[in-house]
Specification:
Order of helices and strands: HHHHH
Number of helices: 5
Largest sheet: none
Strand content: under 5%
Distance between the termini: 54 Å
Number of domains: 1
Mean pLDDT: 86
Structural class: mainly alpha
Number of strands: 0
Shape: globular
Low-confidence stretches: none
Length: 112
């Protein structure tokens, strides 16, 4: 059996993952409207929320797939990451910056 890579996964898998993440982003947008942080008919803000949700969900999907999580758990995590949106991306950034701190700057940059 060939190794699973992003290129050989079924499109239906991507549809489930991105769709669930986008639903999470939609729920997040509705919550923001109800709390007064967003206007109900602001289509630009809604599209931004959904695109960010799709990105966060897709990144979460890849990490879960790499970790060999069950597909149902993976899709659930993608939906949660979609609801979190940019907060999920910032959390991942914090994890990676802790695990992989930036390299020391060279002496030329230190003199500035």
């Amino acid at each position: 059996m060939p190794e699973r890579t992003p290129e050989n996964l079924a499109w239906l898998t991507y549809l489930w993952v991105v769709g669930t993440a986008c639903l999470g982003g939609t729920v997040s947008f509705i919550r923001k409207v109800k709390q007064g942080y967003a206007r109900a008919w602001n289509i630009t803000e809604f599209i931004g929320e959904v695109v960010t949700a799709a990105f966060a969900g897709l990144i979460t999907f890849y990490l879960c797939d790499w970790s060999n999580f069950d597909i149902r758990v993976t899709v659930a995590f993608a939906g949660i990451a979609g609801h979190m949106g940019s907060r999920a991306i910032f959390q991942l950034e914090n994890v990676f910056s802790t695990k992989f701190p930036p390299a020391e700057t060279n002496s030329v940059e230190k003199e500035k």
